[in-house]
Amino acid sequence: MKKLVVSVASIMKIGLIIAIILYQKPTTITQLHPDQTIDEQENQESLNDAEKPKTELLQPIHIDDPITYSLQNDELNITFDKGSNWITVPVEKDQLFDGEYNGNKRELIEVSYVLTQNRAAFLYSDGMDWDNKRILLTYSLDQGKTWKESVVTKPFPAMRFRKVDFLNDKFGYVIISGGRTMSQEFSTVFLTHDGGESWEETTNSGVTRLISDGGFIDETTGFLSFGTINPEEPDLYVTQDAGNTWTEAKVNIPAEYKEIFVQAEVPVKEGGYLAVLINQGPNGDYKGGKVKGKFISKDNGKTWEFQVEVNPNETEG
Amino acid sequence: MKQKGKLIKIAGWILFLFAFGFFCLQMGYLFAHERFQVEYIDNRLFYLINISCVICLSLAIFLLLTLTKKWKWIGTGVVIVFIIVNGVLLTFSNQEVKNITSISPNFKQVLSIKENIESGNAVYYRSYYGILARPQEKLPYVTDGEFQVEWLANDVAAVTYKAADNTIHQFIGTYGDRGTGRSYYYVGAEIHGRWKGNNAEVVSNTEGITVTQNGKTELFEWDNIVQFGTLAVVLMKNNEAAWTIALNENFQMHSNSAIPPSGEISLYQATMEKNKPIILQNTTSN
């Protein structure tokens, strides 16, 4: 027993000493995201330490994910192997955030890109004129060896909501909105059947409320959910013919949940029917505001019946 | 006597377990540091944990084993040297990198800024699990080392600092959201209207944000307003921060522009002198 204690203790002591030596090496705090590109900062930096190297070591934005990206050095780099090798995406960083977006530029706008083993695709816009921009998708199907650029639409006003997704190698969709005035805007959906090379606009839903989300669950069935800031009831539109017609889905909310479940998320397929989670919007306070209502539809999205309350812990992975 | 001996043994094993726990923490940290670029939220923690580990370990050995006088002396010597070395390194490390750490009033968030004293570069860290942190962004101006931290809400920390050229700047660490957390919104637009508080008034309209305090009125145009997260804006004048406006926890926004937002906002002056935020209420009538 004595031997055990002494040997474990010695190993620990030696371990700690090695740890101290290792810890002395990298006490730097310099490998950072250079995102706050305020002009004055750059001026000041160049005045203060002119000899400092301009480029920084790239760090993956999601450390646990082998396929991820970095927005350091004012460019978009992607990696498929946790940051061992980087590929620069031929899109300017500012273009990725172009439009009505004033948020953090350290991370890409959620759902504005697809980054998987088989496809890297980035939705963005260019053009100086606020009302006359081109909406573009730059994508690669061979992990960044070659890149293609396709025009989703032009002209389009400055984008607010933007989402791109692919359901398989060929079929994908882009949902964008723009031209917002107060709480009204124009939103529209584009589909591709050739993996992103060409895009066709679907019939417009005619709704001018602010779009909060949308998506397709197969090549014909898609949804648009409206009402972003203070919705009073879910406003879900469905198409069952690949966007030729949009109809308002009927969500039968039980009386006790009226004005509680107000904002529809994107429906998903579940067994033989569809399921959608309807959340409480930004101001919900029912059971803490996080509980969502799960509704199911047996007619492919036209009518929805309440099924069960869902705890956020079960829905947010 | 036998009972006492047993208690000592138990205490010894508990201390030994503690020491082992600290040891595993350090090893885990080194691995995580190498692999995920995480750091302790305060660089000095590394040395403090080392010291705690060695103290627990030596006490455990004293309690568990019967040592000869010679070994007792050697053991004590080694421990003292180890503590001194760690203490010296701790002091040096803080001279190289100054740690500014502040815990939110509800103890849920930790603000961490590390400043490289030699270069004046300061970096804002985002905390994970209370003691670990990853670099999030560099403060835009080289600092002169003086920082003042004020929590405007449980999830909004305002850091006021002086840049090397003597201008005053504010950096806002935000750890939350007043919306769904899914969509971005503009703080300036959400506080559209007239807000009044103790001797101060804020008006947000299409021109910008106007701040009146003690009879002095200043207009900050939208170009001079910098948003942090979705909780706060800093109003700039001549490339210097003048005020921060943060949404308080009771702030609620409404998309329907006819309904003014409810709740309160905080107005906080950018100055190196100690000052308290002013709480403002909406006075826009329907």
Automatic annotation (TrEMBL), chain A:
Residues 67-258 form the DUF6242 domain. InterPro entries: BNR_rpt (IPR002860), DUF6242_C (IPR058667), Sialidase_sf (IPR036278), WD40/YVTN_repeat-like_dom_sf (IPR015943). SUPFAM superfamilies: Sialidases. It comes from the Bacteria. Coiled coil: none annotated. Signal peptide: none annotated. Pfam families: BNR, DUF6242_C. This is Oxidoreductase. It comes from Virgibacillus profundi.
From TrEMBL, chain B:
It comes from the Bacteria. Keywords: Membrane, Transmembrane, Transmembrane helix. The chain crosses the membrane at residues 12-32, 44-66, 73-92. This is Uncharacterized protein.
